[in-house]
Amino acid sequence: MGIVHRLYHGETAFPLIARRRRFYAVSIALCVIALGSLIFRGFNLGVEFKGGAIFTVSAPSSVDLHDTRTFVESLGVNEPIVQTVKTSTGQTKVRIESAPLTQAEEQKVVEGLASHFKVDANSIDSRDVGASWGKQVTRKALQGLVAFLIAVILFISVRFEPKMAAAAIIALVHDLLLAAGIYSITQFVVTPSTIIALLTVLGYSLYDTIVVFDRVDENTKGIERGNKSTYSEAAELAVNQTFMRSFNTSLIALLPVSGLLFVGALLLKAGTLKDLALALFVGLGAGAYSSLFLATPLLADLKEREPRFVALQGRVAQRRSGAAAPVRLSQRSTNAAEGEAVESAPVATATATAVRRTGAPPAKRKPKGSRPTGKKRKR
Amino acid sequence: MARPGPSSRGQLHVWRYLGALLVLFVALYTTVAFAGQGSAWLKPKLGLDLQGGAQVILTPKTESGKTASSAQLSTAVDILRQRVNGAGVSEAEVFVEGEQIVVQVPGGNRDSIKAATKTAQLQMRRLVESAPVVPTTPPTTAPSATPSAAVSTPTASATPKKRPVTAGLVQAGTPTPTSTPSATPSPSEAPADAGPLVRSGDVYSPQAFALLDCSDPKARLGGAPDAPNQEIVACDRFGTEKYHLAVAKVVGKDVKGANVGTDSLGTQIKVVVSFKGKGQDKFTNLTKEAFGATPPTNRVAIVLDGVVYSAPTIQNVINGDAEITGGFSQKEAEQLANVLKFGALPLNFESGDAEVISASLGDDQLRSGLIAGGIGLAAVVVYSLLYYRMLGFITISSLLVSGGLTYAMVCVLGKQIGFALSLAGIAGFIVAVGITADSFVVYFERLKDEIKEGRTPRSAVDVAWKRAIRTILNADAVSLLAAVLLYFFSVGGVRGFAFTLGLSTILDLVVVTLFTRPLISLLSRQRWFSRTGPTGFYGPDGGQPSTGATRPSLTTPQEA
């Protein structure tokens, strides 16, 4: 059966944890590229962050802002902010904010505006403008972020466990790095909207990871008391169980954002929409990827080092070698489990589901029969 | 169909939940309707980038006539930002341009922005005489005011600074011949200005003292000319007492700093004002003069912008800080401290004309943003229907409910706390669609799992909900944590973002518990809900979901 069919029926059994090194390599490579670009190319910061030049010119009251913006861009100004200002005496002026310009560029803009609006070049006011996104805004935002990260580490540690917090934070850094890196690589202008988009990514990345970890937590409860499957296998099962959820959610979140990106970048070429949508698109994509392909394998790696799970590995291996069938793959091993009595409810559920997912036809009836007992005991 | 146990219990719940949702809806939209005025009642307040607003350019001058240092300017910017965008959700901007400070407020009219950027000067004056206000004849105060103006005043004066003038912003730019340079009348106040309205803070004359009616809120709006060297008439903040005050002995420039604190009992919030060297001398002398004088001249009024904040009796010569109490809320006290700090800056701000500015983003950006969002949402709808079949309609209707609630909240908050929606905010809500939809996805996937494991669709509805809500609560808790912490720590745009995130997370929980769950519960009683065709549910063997007939033990959920 095709992959689409298996996806639709939730019968995926991707060896996400078995192949984790491959995903680590991909993530590390992407992060290195992003980091390299951040260090060597840096950001193309917007006028809101570093200030720039501002021009004020008298204009007829019927001035068309769209035309003016296009005209100013043709003078070589990247992403200007164009506004009309109506003074209390009823005059109309056009106010143009741009990134810092050299003397020659400034001259060019002044002359261009003078001929465009048919006014004397000396009547055009040009001056420096400071950053509207002040240092205080950044400092306070960073304070908030630090407080949030501490709180979220505590929350995950208490609600789940500290190792999940570690894995979630690594995944978060990964997502933010990629989203920020793409701005450095494409040299899209970074505006306050971009920062807001990055914060959205931050929230989404954690949210998505928590949903997957919630399932991992459920599947691995009491697992060390049995000998059916290792932590990695239970975690892998959880990832596969939530795979369609992650896929659907990410798609539903990405569809509107890709609409924004498409319209913003391709049709309008510039502006807030594009600035926002790129960060959102990359960040949400990375967030969905990292919660499945990075956070959970990392968690499994961390957990497998714990003595109790090392011991569990030993017991599982022992039991499997004791079983008649030669055991090589995790799916075989779960098949081996089906003949046995159900002792621990969560493991039973997990194992049974795994059996169904891997789709070994003759194995179907038995776990089903044993399930009700397991479920009832669980509640 | 008639299995009495679980379904009758569920039925009760369904209508209770849906009823609660309906009440919420009605309450929200009623609030919107009452808060708004005229045709603008269903319009959210838009940010500077989408709607434009008003701006004022402040030119600082130091006392010595030198240009202000950049450190002084940035302090002034921080204080001003706090004043015009205290809650952080109004999308107002303050920045340095050349050697001037530009303040931009979305949607605001010129008068409100001038009021917001005014430096309220602290003055401490001894009382000459005082009189209680007898609230007998409030309506007779503005004899020359036209009846229509009188009708419109209550709303205008209640929230003079926040009242958004959404419509007719540009028209307001046409010159109106109100050429009283010192006064800053708000439009509805203008007719009354023509009459002999005596304002709190006006220069004293026996006649003015007699005419001053402190029970009229308009008299307490401030805006009287700053006359520290003349005696004035004044009201207290609540209009219960009126005063004749001596010349100011301590003024804003004498202030070093201001902080919010509570008194020794911890019950009353106070603002503690510290003084510079000379200012301290002046203040100590003032208390020395007042101490032991004949009442009421033993009282010192703390006057801000012509209004008396408190007028304590001086019971000692004070060599230290001054404390202002007056039944403040924490927020009021913080605002007052900010105003005092601003007035304490060694800068005079010459405020330029208020100007109306257009949206910084073209219409094209908003329009294409909405179109793009619309296309994206249409794609979501198509995908939901393909993947979840009939359940897709639940997703869509839940998103509609969520959208309706969000819209109402944005309108209400725009009126109540000046919440303004920028393009970034709109994009945030579009992303929130993903997070809201996720709750349904989590639930539906659980439902599918449970049914595949052999439950009947009807019994799976409850079991899947219990598992799903746990996941949803865990994930939403993280989002809320982010929202709350970022809100309390940040300023400016980040604060606005945190607000939006928190709002959409809470609405997500509301919609999924009050709407999606009862709706599914309701639909699960339909016959089609148990078939693969309309729902996409598959039973354990990949065919129709279990009907419960073969394995009765599973049909009645046994709950602990």
Strand content of chain B: 15-25%
Q: What is the 3D form of chain B?
A: elongated
CATH topology of the largest domain in chain A: Multidrug efflux transporter AcrB transmembrane fold
Report the average pLDDT across residues of chain A.
Answer: 77
Give the helix proportion of chain B (percent range): 40-55%
Major sheet of chain A: order of its strands?
3-4-2-5
User: What fraction of the residues of chain A are assigned to beta strands by DSSP?
Assistant: 5-15%
State the distance separating the first and last CA atoms of chain B. 24 Å
**Rg over alpha carbons of chain A:** 28 Å
The CATH fourth-level homologous superfamily of the largest domain in chain A? Multidrug efflux transporter AcrB transmembrane domain
Brief characterization of the structure:
With 379 residues, chain A is α+β, with helices and mostly antiparallel strands. Chain A has helices at 3-8, 20-40, 47-50, 65-74, 103-117, 135-159, 162-186, 192-219, 231-241, 243-267, 272-304, 307-322, 330-337, 345-358, 365-378, and strands spanning 44-45, 52-58, 81-86, 92-98, 125-129, 189-190.
